[in-house]
Design brief:
Radius of gyration of chain B: 23 Å
CATH architecture of the largest domain in chain B: 3-Layer(aba) Sandwich
Number of domains of chain B: 2
Shape of chain C: globular
Number of helices of chain C: 6
Strand order of the largest sheet of chain B: 7-6-5-8-4-1-2-3-9
Structural class of chain C: alpha/beta
CATH class of chain C: Alpha Beta
Distance between the termini of chain C: 62 Å
Helix content of chain B: 25-40%
Mean pLDDT of chain B: 89
Oligomer: heterotrimer
Mean pLDDT of chain C: 90
Order of helices and strands of chain C: EEEEEHEHEHEHEEEEHEEEH
Distance between the termini of chain B: 61 Å
Largest interface: B-C, 98 and 90 residues
Structural class of chain B: alpha/beta
Low-confidence stretches of chain C: none
Strand order of the largest sheet of chain C: 11-10-9-12-8-1-6-7-13
Strand content of chain B: 25-35%
Chains: A alpha+beta (about 625), B alpha/beta (about 350), C alpha/beta (about 270)
Order of helices and strands of chain B: EHEHEHEHEEEEEEEHEHEEEH
CATH topology of chain C: Rossmann fold
Low-confidence stretches of chain B: none
Number of strands of chain B: 15
Number of helices of chain B: 7
Strand content of chain C: 25-35%
Shape of chain B: elongated
Helix content of chain C: 25-40%
CATH class of the largest domain in chain B: Alpha Beta
Chain lengths: ~625, ~350, ~270
């Protein structure tokens, strides 16, 4: 059989002025800013199309998901950039949005005794418990008397990104100036002589391996004067550009996290004000930060972040999230609640160190794909929106001046704007703020405070290692708790059952079994159905590919399986993981969790794909 | 006072279907509850034996439209017949069974007599002298009770929701109403019916057991491989041995539409659920079905339900089935086949 | 072409069937909780009608296809971005309710008026397509009422196939009891066809189709006419979700042979 690459294919092409990849907050910021300048008051084009003379500027945005309202994030954001784009914004206009009404930072003690705490933390926990009355330790938690300024989301908003995207998308489309096409994945950038000439849509009508099958339709080539890439932390087009055009000297993406959350309808008697924000740390593992945000209508987003520096070789998010919500401090609110939605995504947490070229000939990068997230303030949406809005201003400037989208022009019009903005100033402060976590949680927390209060002048720790470089073997990790034989036996059993191994290993380490209740505590498979809907349209190739299966066979950890948010990757007797496209929610965790490299690239390839998790309340 | 009309068509053999008798049962009850009048209106090629069979139902009038023009279920002529019957009866409430023939014309009938219509009715009661109708919305996921002031009000009753009227057949001479049929009403000719080929499995309402297959049959099994041919053989064997009828979950049926590897004999005709059938077999056995509401809507009306699934928390079974076997369906069903074959 | 068809598909949007639906009482009667937030799709059976309509138009030269859709404009716009990638169509948008509790009669009057406004519409060539039943109101009468409003006497429901004949007539397969199909031949349009699933799968998203549709789609959405649906004389006493929880006996760790024996006993007992 021949693959698509091997046969000459006649591809349909279209020419547009601006092709955009991915519709999230960053693209929302870009298109909102741009669209406002495209028409005159009388409805005539303010800026004429270069490809279709006489017509308005042709701007098309392609989104992989089947709808533009399928974000995967319940967030609290200071919303500085969003408010700047929408002065006088009334949060009541956006479903599930609420102004921040109260904010607390809470240290969660371990009520179970299964959490892997360092000696320092154990001593700390004992002291907290000993002085519980004095320190007002209640529900196994210590509410800190204040929230540090750098974490504070004063004047901010609690948002559902799904709903926010939908709201922004509706405004944009009603303007009639831009087109946003859902259900249309982009496979790669069209690059000639180091210049981005547009994008190629994903081939349809192919088999799992990508070979032409019944109804083969080659992906269309979209030629564009400017390609705007905002495809998120694990976007295929971003990574394709980085691979082919390189990264700035010394820059590399090394730090990641998976964020997973539930949207929960709270019991009617729970009286949490909309806009209530809880930031937590300390449980289920000390490395994991957590959150609870209250939306209007007695609905809360509750979730955790599992960072790449949590060195557990069987790290997982779902099981930990189930333990997290049952912490007594949170469970008093959440018990009896009903799961409305669920989701997970990777967060690119490398900050300045992971920044790609923000612009080049014919293209610009915005949002998380441009390393816009601030890891010190734990904020990404506001930053993403602002990167897009700044690009929008720059693009308008170039269009109005009739200047082409060259590297120089985009650097001057966009990159300089970004360098002069609060984004850059805050990103510099954050640059080394989390280096301390390379040495441990306590050092990490102190390092964050130090960086914040010294405006980035001081930091603790060392530059981060790649996720795979830090990993220890399961035998080392469980030393003292489980024998290597026990671990191997569990893994072999899981190979036969085709499941991940973290469940039985956590059971053996003292984590209590989850008592399913059918409405909030449900199995991992049920959450895929109850928490949303995983779309896997037919006729697309598998987007998770194991390049060298011998490498997979030798891999002891199979972290891709453990970390898979949808149980789409499973163990097998043959030793090579199985991938089930119908369960993949495109969180991207497998990509950065694969510790094996082949010829300089990760052995697990996450390619462009179609579908994913769809839930409007995320 | 409400004038209640029971409206029905005769079957090919001149009798009334069970569903029609259920609608008559509901009409008789409503007449008593509202202290109203009851009339019977029949249409079809032959109506005499149908009329005789319910002559003791207590109706004050028996009306009928009959003849060869009304032998087949054709919208244009059926609508004309029903319109004439309703006009002649002066009915305010019309109760009919939701047969395909009645369902096809009730919208037109309501429009022509300037009335209104509700379908998927599951209950008709009286409250303060007025009828209250309970019906499904959102494909059997929401039930609503409503009243209307507009008359005539046509109600199409779902099968199986009321007790069939029972009584001794007698003899009655219905008032025959002449309905002239012009050529403009003969533009459609009904050529007959087609039954799916004998080897094509469908949902047969007469079977005692409905076997519902889920998409799990086509997924990778323990060894990491799919075993679709084996799944096909096991299922067909079981249908042969047990005389069960075959249903499928939406996800399995959809796979066949998408040309994915799936069970070759599975089509939309097998689909149970929101966009498929809601069968009412006495027993139902599901295997490899997974899903939450609304997937499970499909087998809500099956009497006794058992399920086989590897996941003890399977939403298709928990709270929906009487028994859930946490087991490998391939293994269990192969064994079941062996046992059935040996009987 | 004398034998060409003008296919008008009536299709509204409904909540994605996989969403949990919860009824609530609103100022205008019952509604769904968070109705505007629920992801929406084109009504499934009506979507089949659209795909079949597009296929028919492709087969019979000189034919054309319109989609008449009434829903809140924001929802309609959202769903149309996906629908527009499936088949070439011309949209007639009506900004009105898509709730399952909106009365069928009033809805039909509004839709019939929208069909009449289609420029160049010729009722003698009209094939009015739609879903057999919607996934919202699930009454199965709205399309019939639209047909009646337009004076169409040949109607078919539960349609799985239409086969045009050379003389301008067409054969129709309708679902009837006993998993059978009734076969009819209609002399020609006008006719109403309420579709079941038909035989075509959902077409893939095609960017070229999308681009072509976009030229007419956005203007159609922008000039969407307002559709009002009153509910004179209709009063909802209550609206609930049925509670049919069963006490499930979960049998774990029973040997396969024993499970099989128990099942066979259950299957064979009267």
């Amino acid at each position: 059989m021949s693959t698509v690459e091997q046969i000459a294919i006649e591809r349909a092409t279209i020419d547009v002025d601006i092709a955009c990849v991915g519709f999230g907050p960053a693209m929302g910021g870009f298109l909102t800013t741009l669209s406002r300048e495209l028409l005159n008051h009388d409805g005539s084009p303010a800026i004429e199309s270069g490809t279709m003379p006489g017509m308005p500027l042709q701007v098309i945005c392609y989104e992989r998901a089947d709808d533009i309202g399928f974000g995967v994030s319940g967030v609290v954001t200071r919303a500085r950039g969003i408010r700047a784009s929408f002065p006088g914004l009334d949060p009541a206009q956006i479903p599930m949005a609420a102004p921040v009404s109260s904010e607390k930072l809470v240290y969660l003690l371990d009520p179970i005794g299964a959490s892997r705490r360092s000696r320092a933390l154990r001593v700390g926990d004992r002291l907290f418990r000993a002085f519980r009355k004095f320190l007002r330790v209640r529900h196994d938690a210590l509410e800190l008397p204040f929230t540090p300024g750098f974490l504070h989301k004063k004047d901010g908003l609690v948002l559902s990104i799904g709903q926010f995207n939908q709201w922004v998308g509706a405004q944009l489309m009603s303007s009639g100036t831009v087109q946003i096409w859902p259900g249309m994945p982009v496979s790669e950038a069209l690059i000639e002589d180091g210049k981005v000439r547009g994008v190629r849509l994903l081939d349809q009508g192919v088999d799992r391996g990508g070979s032409p099958d019944a109804g083969f339709t080659p992906g269309m080539d979209i030629h564009a004067a400017l390609t705007v890439v905002g495809d998120g932390p694990a976007g295929a087009v971003s990574r394709d550009i980085d691979r082919r055009l390189g990264m700035p000297e010394g820059n590399e993406v090394r730090e990641w996290a998976v964020g997973m959350k539930f949207v929960i309808e709270l019991r009617p008697d729970v009286e949490l004000q909309p806009g209530t924000v809880l930031h937590t740390f300390g449980f289920p593992e000390p490395e994991m930060f957590g959150f609870l945000y209250v939306h209007p209508g007695n609905v809360a987003s509750v979730g955790i972040f599992v960072p790449s520096w949590f060195d557990c070789p069987i790290r997982t998010a779902y099981r930990y999230l189930q333990h997290y919500i049952q912490h007594p401090y949170l469970w008093r609110f959440l018990e009896g609640g009903k799961l409305r939605s669920w989701g997970a995504k990777s967060l690119q947490e490398s900050g300045k160190r992971g920044e790609p070229f923000l612009a080049g000939d014919g293209y610009a990068r915005i949002g998380e794909s441009s390393s816009g997230t601030n890891v010190l303030t734990g904020s990404g949406v506001d930053e993403a929106w602002t990167t897009g809005a700044l690009l929008g201003e720059g693009v308008i400037e170039l269009l109005q001046a009739g200047k082409p989208f060259t590297r120089e022009n985009l650097e001057q019009a966009y990159e300089q704007r970004r360098r002069n903005s609060w984004l850059e100033k805050e990103a510099r402060i954050a640059e080394k703020s989390r280096d301390g976590f390379q040495r441990g949680v306590v050092t990490g927390l102190i390092g964050m405070a130090l960086a914040a209060f010294s405006n980035g002048r001081f930091s603790l720790g060392s530059p981060p290692a790649k996720p795979g470089e830090r990993l220890v073997s399961p035998a080392d990790f469980y030393r003292g708790k489980l024998t290597p034989q026990e671990i191997t036996a569990v893994q072999q059993e899981c190979d036969v059952r085709g499941t991940s191994a973290h469940g039985p290993l956590m059971d053996r380490c003292g984590w209590p079994a989850i008592q399913h209740d059918g409405s909030l505590l449900v199995s991992h498979q049920d959450v895929l159905l109850m928490g949303g809907k995983v779309q896997a349209p037919a006729g697309y190739a598998d987007h998770v590919v194991f390049r060298d299966i011998e490498v997979c066979r030798r891999c002891g950890n199979k972290l891709c399986v453990e970390m898979c948010s949808g149980q789409a990757i499973t163990r097998s007797v043959a030793g090579v993981p199985n991938f089930d496209r119908e369960k993949c929610i495109f969180c991207g965790a497998c990509m950065w969790n694969c510790p094996e490299t082949v010829q300089g690239q990760s052995n697990l390839q996450l390619r462009a794909g179609a579908g994913g998790l769809h839930s409007a309340e995320n | 006072m409400e004038n209640i009309l029971f409206l029905a068509h005769s079957e090919a053999d001149g009798t009334l279907s069970t569903a029609a008798l259920e609608a008559l049962g509901a009409a008789v009850e409503l007449k008593q509850a509202l202290n109203g009048t009851l009339a019977v209106a029949l249409y079809g090629a032959q109506i005499q034996s149908a009329a005789d069979s319910i002559s003791a139902c207590g109706a004050q009038r028996f009306l009928a439209v009959c003849g060869e023009e009304f032998a087949t279920a054709r919208h244009a002529t059926d609508a004309a017949a029903c319109e004439a019957l309703v006009r002649a009866s002066g009915a305010t409430i019309i109760i009919a069974a939701a047969s395909s023939r009645n369902s096809r014309v009730m919208g037109a009938l309501a429009h022509r007599v300037r009335g209104c219509v509700d379908t998927h009715v599951t209950d008709v009661t009286a409250s303060s002298g007025a009828p209250v109708v309970t019906r499904w919305f959102y494909r059997q996921r929401i039930e609503g009770s409503l009243t209307r002031t507009q008359r005539p009000w046509i109600l199409l009753l779902d099968p199986g929701v009321c007790s069939a009227w029972q009584g001794t057949p007698g003899s009655i001479t219905p008032e025959l109403i002449d309905v002239p049929i012009s050529d403009s009403l003969r533009r459609t000719s009904v050529r007959g019916t087609v039954t799916p080929p004998a080897d094509q499995q469908t949902i047969r309402p007469d079977a005692k057991l409905l076997f519902v297959a889920g998409a799990g049959w086509t997924k990778k099994q323990k060894d990491g491989q799919t075993h679709v041919p084996e799944a096909e053989a096991i299922i067909l064997d079981f249908l042969r041995n047990s005389k069960a009828s075959l249903g499928g979950s939406k996800s399995l049926v959809d796979l066949s539409g998408e040309n994915q590897s799936t069970l070759r004999f599975m089509s939309h005709l097998n689909q149970v659920g929101q966009t498929g059938a809601t069968p009412r077999h006495p027993k139902g056995l599901s295997a490899c079905c997974h899903g939450e509401e609304p997937h499970t809507v499909g087998w809500r009306f099956i009497g006794e339900r058992r399920a086989i699934n590897l996941d003890p928390n399977c939403g298709w079974a928990r709270g929906k089935a009487d028994v859930l076997y946490v087991a490998d369906a391939f293994e269990v069903m192969s064994k079941v086949n062996a046992l059935l074959a040996a009987m | 072409m004398s034998n060409s068809f003008q296919v008008v598909v009536c299709a509204s949007v409904v909540p994605d069937p996989l969403q949990t639906l919860e009824p609530v009482s609103g100022p205008n009667g019952p509604a769904l909780k968070n109705e505007m937030m629920l992801p929406a799709i084109l009504d499934p059976w009506a979507a089949h009608a659209l795909y079949e309509g597009a296929n028919l138009v492709k087969q019979v030269a000189g034919s054309s296809l319109w989609l008449v859709s009434m829903a809140p404009k924001a929802k309609l716009q959202q769903v149309m971005m996906t629908v527009a990638q499936k088949v070439p169509l011309q949209l007639v948008a009506v900004d009105g309710p898509s709730s399952g509790f909106a009365d069928a009669h009033q809805t039909a009057t509004t839709l019939a008026a929208a069909v009449r406004t289609i420029p160049g519409i010729d009722l003698s060539k009209l094939l009015l397509f739609g879903g057999w039943e919607s996934a919202s109101r699930s009454a199965g009468v709205t399309l019939q009422l639209v047909g009646e409003e337009l004076g169409i006497v040949d109607q078919f429901q539960g349609v799985d196939a239409i086969t045009p004949q050379t003389d301008g007539s067409f054969e129709v397969l309708e679902r009837i009891e006993g998993a059978r199909h009734q076969v009819s031949v209609c002399a020609g349009p006008p006719a109403v066809l309420g579709w079941a699933t038909g035989s075509l799968g959902e077409p893939r998203n095609d960017p070229q189709v999308g681009m072509a549709n976009m030229r007419t789609l956005m203007p159609a959405l922008q000039r969407a006419m307002a559709g009002t649906v009153s509910s004179d004389g209709l009063h909802y006493a209550n609206v609930t979700t049925p509670k049919q929880q069963r006490q499930t006996r979960i049998v774990k760790d029973m040997p396969t042979d024993e499970v099989a024996r128990e099942l066979v006993h259950w299957i064979t007992q009267e």
